[in-house]
Amino acid sequence: MSPTLTDDELPWGRERQAGRREEWQLVIAWSLDEPWRVGQSAAVREASVLGRGGPQTDDGLGRLVFHARRPGASVPGPHLAATRVSRKQLRLVPTKDGRLEVTSIGQCSFSVDGVETEQAVVDAGAVLTLKNALVLYVLRDAPLEPLTSYPAPQFAFGAADAAGVVGESRAAWRLRDELAMAALGPHHVLVLGESGSGKELAARTVHMLSPRAARTFVARNAATFPEGLVDAELFGNAKNYPHAGSPERSGVVGEAEGGTLFLDEIGELPLSLQGHLLRLLDREGEYQRLGDAKARRADLRLVAATNRAVDALKHDLAARFSARVSVPSLSERRADLPLLVRHILQRFAAETPSLVARLFDARDDGPPEPRIAPALIEALLAHAFTHQLRELERLLWLASTTTQQPFFDLTPEVLAELRLPRPETDGDPTEAAVRAAIEGASGNVTQAARTLGLKNRYLLYRLMKKYGIAESADRADGT
Questions:
Q1: Whole-model pTM?
Q2: Which of 49, 138, 346, 435 could be disulfide-bonded to 367 (CB atoms 3.0-4.6 Å)?
Q3: For residues 103 and 54, is the Cβ–Cβ distance under 8 A?
Q4: Which residue, 141, 115, 143, 109, is CA-closest to 127?
């Protein structure tokens, strides 16, 4: 399980340390009438109104405007055209204690984290739903700082970049910038991140942004090397070695000459075998094919990945990776999840054309737009992913194959995978169950409440108080 992040370790915590001003953001996670708006956000700096259409002059409050927010730039979009949303639908007021008060003042039914209400005081991480119209994710963040190394974006807002990375969140842009910085330097790179978070995609980004981009990219899973044949797999062998008639093999090091070698799951190699890479990673890049009398010198960059802690690697191997990049988990970039959902579903459409007529709307100016039930987006936003993007892909494929509707639905099969909702039990959950749920949700109280089958987060706050679980330490919803 992932450890609970402290406030200063969270993306907005680092910006607070840098003295940047935080503000509330409402990120569009789903829109019935304007699906192209997914990922756009509106800043709530003072008492404001969310509603359809242009400015109003009789309420004395500012009207929210949604922007395509990017580092160093924020492009405003047109006024909301959601037909089911009233011209004055939500009143939003930042509170003095650092939360956001939301009041429904329109005709569209309103819910917070799946519970219908007329008014709520929410934290970052809350999901606001206007029934069959909009799903909004509440974020607390500072303006995005300009990029230092990544080239100016040449791809549409919300789309995948040239390497295939999807996301407009602070974490996604920080990752792109750190990968670009690593790519432009001369050092071997260690990519860290949870299983399924996209470490190979990060490695390909390093290659694509490096001076070696026109050369070959060779990817191997280090955990698949047979223990007795690691040197042969890595470095190859001379002709007629170890037996007469044996062909010459270049090994993955030779295959990657001039380019980039990506070794995934390098932490799965036994420590004794990790030592076989040490001379290759020295400045001279020296290695020797089995059966060769002379050593060779490799001209390549090694990018290695592991889901283990750095100190789990052989210490002198870890020391040779001067450049290190951490790939954020979905919990660190939850506002990107709806964009990732759309990207994955559009890939499904390209790979399985039979899905298009059943579950997508055709577009003249781009790939088909998936029809998605808002309940599916709400459930995915609340889910504590353990296998990251790989798990998200599996859930979406399950939704595509089990739906009986003309859209991607939150089917019973998907619910079973998400384990939502859990059957109600007699009495309160035990203290151990509460602590386990909070730890499993990386401290996110909303997610932990859902895991426990509670109707809302406030029931969990009561249990935390009952069991003496400190709210300031364990409540990581963004405040």
A1: 0.81
A2: 346
A3: no
A4: 115
CA distance 141 to 11: 8
Letter for the amino acid at 10?
A: L
pLDDT value at residue 20: 65
Q: Which residues contact 206 (CB under 8 A, 6 or more apart)?
A: 179, 182, 183, 189, 191, 260, 301, 303, 325
The angle at the Cα of 380, spanning 427 to 88, to the nearest 5 degrees, equals 95
**Number of neighbours of residue 294 by Cβ within 10 angstroms:** 6
d(CA 13, CA 20): 10
Q: What is the pLDDT of residue 244?
A: 78
- The reported pLDDT for the residue numbered 2 is 36
The rounded Cα 425 to chain-centroid distance in angstroms is: 33
Counting as low any pLDDT under 50, the low residues of the chain are 1-18, 420-426, 472-479
Is 338:30 a contact under the CB 8 Å cutoff? yes
